[in-house]
Amino acid sequence: MRFILPFLGKTKESYLDHGIRDYAERLRRYVPVDIKVLKEPGKNEPDAVLMAREADLLLSQAAAASLLVALDPAGREQTSEDMAAALESWESRGLHTICFLIGGHLGLDPRVRQQANALWSLSRLTFTHEMSRFILIEQLYRACSIKAGHKYHR
């Protein structure tokens, strides 16, 4: 199994960037992880245009994926154990490349949500898209460690 994590723009908060890099290295003990930092479209465009351009960028990165998971507040909340079970199920079904998509500051364009195979929510709480990156990668690490039988999550 392999994970693709396309991010819209650089992570500007240094503490989050450090945490993302740290957990990416930890996660790579279990699976290959490809973090792709995409150049953000111009922010001076109307919201609908900006979201559509972001959708184009994100979906272009997902083209090679076996499965597309979009992170959205309207998605299904997961426990760490749920995530581990999902990863195990996907792996047993032969799905090799999983792409996780997080929108920009406006969220995800409806087209991304429609094309996703799964729609997950990280929480009912609101996080910045940069915080969502960190939370996702830490939870993927936690799910992989659970799947491997480690007691990290307790």
UniProtKB/TrEMBL annotation:
Subcellular localization(s) per the UniProt record: Cytoplasm
GO molecular function: rRNA (pseudouridine-N3-)-methyltransferase activity
GO cellular component: a single term: cytoplasm
The reaction(s) this protein catalyses: pseudouridine(1915) in 23S rRNA + S-adenosyl-L-methionine = N(3)-methylpseudouridine(1915) in 23S rRNA + S-adenosyl-L-homocysteine + H(+)
EC nos: 2.1.1.177
Subunit structure: Homodimer.
Chain sites annotated for binding S-adenosyl-L-methionine: L71, G103, L122, S123, R124, L125, T126, F127
Major place of residence: cytoplasm
Lineage, uppermost ranks: Bacteria, Pseudomonadati, Thermodesulfobacteriota, Desulfobulbia, Desulfobulbales
The family this protein is said to belong to: Belongs to the RNA methyltransferase RlmH family.
Keywords tagged on the record: Cytoplasm, Methyltransferase, rRNA processing, S-adenosyl-L-methionine, Transferase
Transmembrane regions listed in the UniProt entry: none
InterPro entries the record matches: Alpha/beta_knot_MTases, RlmH-like, tRNA_m1G_MTases_N
UniProt organism field: Candidatus Electronema aureum
Classification via Pfam families: SPOUT_MTase (PF02590)
UniProt cross-references to HAMAP family, sorted A to Z: 23SrRNA_methyltr_H
Annotated protein name in UniProt: Ribosomal RNA large subunit methyltransferase H
Function: Specifically methylates the pseudouridine at position 1915 (m3Psi1915) in 23S rRNA.
